[in-house]
């Protein structure tokens, strides 16, 4: 994001005066300027700015803060991951009574015995004693971090309050559960599964931001949802009074008013149609009898499906984008202020003069800064060997110093990783006589200039695909003989030889460091060498390798074609956008997973073990007739099946509702459970994911932003690399980068408005 320096640093002019710029008179009482600047940079990287708090700190507090930061990254995330893993591997509550001991491993089907066969995930559940120990260790560590965090946060914010609340509740539940287990009880209900989800949401920043956005969009969402419900009620009432008189069978032998016999039935049916889950099944009885009923269903679909469901998506999209935009405006505003303050502390007048001389950060000051930030693991480490590379990237004008404008990029530059790679091949370095041979230059010409070798590989790959399809057809048609297998094995052997020869030609005239930089090349080399070794092993007369194995390896090798398509102009931009978006979607994927985990945990506790073969409550149900009993809530892993089915299908299934009604013992249990999941999981969470993908893709769908080389690296001084080497830099797209691209104009405008206010 290009901002003028007045936009970037003037925002911090008013606040920076709150910091002591002079060196402390008494060592040990206050922080040095470098320590203050490092603290400001560390907080700027996460969008925080607290000059008053930093001014009050001492070197001792700084050391404690560094230790605290290094204790929570990545340990906090590891603890949360382990607790979520417990949800997948712990013995379900309905099975605890069959345990044989605290640390006895038991087969899942033995410990979870139902009156009939019950489908389980197949996981061998961890002994209850082991999961308790893991929970105790993780909860204790998270509690310790929460106590430390209260010492360094300027105020106990909402996120920290939630952390303390979830950890405290979890600790109480864990103590109660442990005592119950020790005294031989088998509690089926725990609060812990819900606390695990809560800790996931408040421990991962990206997930927390997305979850807050989901919560804050609820009021606007409910306004449109209310209109949607009114439309369903109106059409349900209209259907009930319309079809009430059609109490006879149609030509298919089905009652014309099936599903609309009463007002409540009509409401249920129209809701199912509005979600598209029962479309067109529920319309067929009436439509078969009278074609003009199609007009009613058409109008209903236009209002509910095409209008209100898309309006709900639009509301979610707008509210989510507005919240995230506001959040990142705040983050980058705080970053600008923090970096302005840090620059003030580090900068010295040009040439050592005073007065109106421009202030800059020298190489020595920058080295002192990164030496201090290196103490915090959350900030990428700058080694002494790469210090010059980082400095040269920041020094855009090659002046040997860093100006205020250049210093603003420090948070982005520190996230690069640099590598020194050779630019000469092994032959050029150690066997110059080979490098001087005409054949060497011939191969180099067709690898680097005409790219004939790469084109030949692609051509052979296409032909290889055709032969694989032919072989697959023979295999599926059961017409392949033993002789055919030998012929196909020989063909695959020669393909392996060709691929290996082409790879050897590339490596001969390409420095290995350069070749290894590309993920595609790494995949190609690994698979090609593996395929070549397997082919040689197959051809040996004293070995017996199935041609099917060789065939499978060739199929893996054909994945190289995917990369070929991605590199075509028609697909390259889209492929690059997808590669950038996927790792940055952690937050929105996290909220979908978290919401599903909440509903899943509740269902496992309430309905676990109730769905099994021979359950008299499920006899003569469409649920069993459709063989949906594999989609159940008998353990945590299995519980995601019904929820995922609803996300994909778009709404609650009659079969699921019917099954839960039967096993729960009261009518409406399934409707309440699955409808609530439809509203929260599908209409909110999945639409939030859609909103993120739309915004992120549009922001990345730009040739200049995605395909061009990073402008920050233009000033990288290659003289540091030495003769025969060059420096390459890489940086993965993060969630912050994606949002920065999404709201670049708004962030720039917001910071410029702050400058006007400061002036």
Automatic annotation (TrEMBL):
Pfam families assigned: Ion_trans
PROSITE patterns noted in UniProt: EF_HAND_1, EF_HAND_2
Membrane-spanning ranges: 125-148, 160-185, 220-243, 292-317, 456-474, 486-509, 521-539, 573-594, 671-694
Coiled coil: none
Domain spans labelled EF-hand: 382-417
Cell location: Membrane
Signal peptide: none
GO cellular component, one term: monoatomic ion channel complex
SUPFAM superfamilies from the UniProt entry: EF-hand, Voltage-gated potassium channels
MF term (GO), any: calcium ion binding
Keywords attached to this entry: Calcium, Ion channel, Ion transport, Membrane, Repeat, Transmembrane, Transmembrane helix, Transport, Voltage-gated channel
NAD recorded as keyword: no
Membrane topology reported for the UniProt record: Multi-pass membrane protein
Taxonomy, superkingdom: Eukaryota
InterPro entries from the UniProt entry: EF-hand-dom_pair (IPR011992), EF_Hand_1_Ca_BS (IPR018247), EF_hand_dom (IPR002048), Ion_trans_dom (IPR005821), TPC1_plant (IPR044581), Volt_channel_dom_sf (IPR027359)
Subunit structure: Homodimer.
Homology family: Belongs to the calcium channel alpha-1 subunit (TC 1.A.1.11) family. Two pore calcium channel subfamily.
Cross-referenced PANTHER family: TWO PORE CALCIUM CHANNEL PROTEIN 1
Protein name: EF-hand domain-containing protein
Protein species of origin: Chrysophaeum taylorii
Lineage: Eukaryota, Sar, Stramenopiles, Ochrophyta, Pelagophyceae
């Amino acid at each position: 994001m290009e901002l003028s320096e007045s936009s970037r640093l003037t925002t911090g002019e008013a606040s920076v005066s709150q910091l002591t710029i002079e060196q402390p008179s008494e060592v040990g009482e206050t922080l040095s300027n470098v320590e203050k600047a490092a603290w400001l940079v560390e907080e700027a990287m996460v969008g925080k700015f607290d000059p008053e708090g930093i001014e009050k700190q001492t070197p001792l507090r700084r050391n404690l803060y560094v230790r605290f930061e290094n204790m929570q990254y990545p340990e906090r995330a590891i603890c949360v991951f382990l607790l979520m893993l417990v949800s997948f591997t712990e013995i379900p509550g309905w099975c605890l009574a069959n345990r044989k001991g605290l640390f006895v491993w038991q087969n899942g089907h033995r410990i979870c015995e139902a009156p009939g066969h019950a489908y389980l995930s197949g996981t061998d559940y961890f002994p209850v004693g082991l999961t308790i120990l893991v929970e105790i260790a993780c909860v204790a560590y998270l509690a310790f971090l929460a106590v430390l965090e209260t010492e360094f946060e300027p105020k106990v914010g909402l996120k920290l309050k939630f952390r303390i609340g979830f950890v405290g509740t979890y600790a109480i539940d864990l103590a109660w559960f442990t005592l119950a287990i020790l005294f031989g009880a088998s509690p089926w209900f725990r609060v812990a599964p819900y606390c695990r989800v809560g800790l996931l949401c408040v421990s991962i920043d990206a997930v927390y931001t997305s979850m807050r956005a989901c919560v804050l969009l609820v009021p606007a969402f409910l306004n449109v949802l209310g209109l949607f419900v009114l439309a369903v009620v109106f059409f349900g009432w209209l259907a009930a009074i319309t079809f009430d008189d059609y109490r006879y069978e149609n030509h298919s032998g089905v009652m014309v008013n099936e599903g609309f016999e009463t007002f409540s039935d009509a409401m249920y049916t129209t809701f199912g149609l509005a979600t598209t889950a029962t479309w067109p099944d529920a319309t067929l009885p009436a439509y078969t009898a009278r074609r003009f009923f199609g007009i009613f269903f058409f109008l209903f679909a236009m209002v509910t499906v095409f209008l209100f469901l898309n309006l709900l998506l639009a509301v979610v999209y707008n509210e989510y984008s507005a919240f995230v935009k506001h959040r990142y405006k705040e983050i980058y505003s705080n970053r600008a202020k923090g970096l302005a303050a840090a620059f003030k502390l580090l900068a010295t007048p040009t040439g050592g003069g005073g007065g109106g001389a421009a202030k800059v950060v020298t190489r020595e000051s920058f080295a002192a800064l990164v030496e201090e930030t290196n103490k915090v693991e959350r900030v990428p480490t700058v080694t002494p060997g790469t210090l010059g590379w980082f400095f040269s990237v920041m020094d855009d004008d090659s002046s040997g110093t860093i100006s205020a404008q250049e210093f603003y990029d420090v948070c982005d530059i520190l996230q690069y990783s640099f590598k020194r790679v050779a630019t000469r091949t092994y032959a050029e370095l150690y066997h110059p006589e080979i490098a001087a041979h005409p054949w060497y230059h011939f191969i180099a010409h067709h690898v680097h200039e005409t790219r004939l070798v790469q084109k030949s590989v692609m051509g052979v790959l296409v032909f290889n695909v055709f032969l694989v399809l032919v072989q697959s057809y023979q295999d599926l048609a059961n017409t392949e003989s033993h002789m055919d297998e030998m012929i196909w094995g020989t063909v695959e052997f020669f393909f392996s030889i060709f691929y290996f020869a082409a790879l050897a030609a590339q490596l001969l005239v390409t420095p290995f460091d350069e070749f290894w930089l590309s993920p595609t090349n790494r995949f190609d080399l690994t698979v090609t060498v593996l395929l070549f070794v397997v082919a040689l092993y197959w051809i040996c007369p004293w070995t017996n390798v199935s041609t099917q194995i060789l065939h499978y390896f060739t199929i893996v090798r054909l994945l190289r074609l995917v990369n070929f398509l991605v590199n075509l102009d028609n697909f390259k931009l889209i492929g690059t956008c997808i590669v950038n978006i996927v790792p940055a979607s952690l937050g929105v994927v996290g909220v979908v997973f978290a919401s599903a985990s909440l509903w899943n945990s509740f269902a496992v506790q309430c309905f676990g073990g109730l769905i099994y073969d021979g359950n008299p409550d499920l006899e003569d149900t469409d649920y069993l007739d459709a063989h949906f009993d594999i989609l159940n809530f008998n353990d945590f892993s299995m519980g995601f099946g019904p929820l995922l089915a609803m996300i994909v299908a778009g709404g609650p299934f009659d079969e699921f509702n019917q099954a839960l009604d039967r096993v729960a013992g009261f009518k409406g249990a399934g409707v309440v459970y699955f409808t609530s999941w439809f509203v929260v999981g599908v209409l909110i969470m999945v639409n939030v994911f859609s909103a993120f993908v739309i915004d992120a893709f549009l922001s990345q769908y730009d040739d200049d932003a995605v395909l061009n080389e990073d402008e920050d690296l233009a000033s990288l001084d290659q003289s540091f690399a030495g003769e025969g080497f060059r420096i390459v830099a890489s940086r993965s797209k993060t969630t912050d980068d994606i949002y920065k691209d999404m709201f670049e104009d708004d962030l720039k405008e917001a910071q410029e408005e702050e400058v006007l206010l400061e002036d």
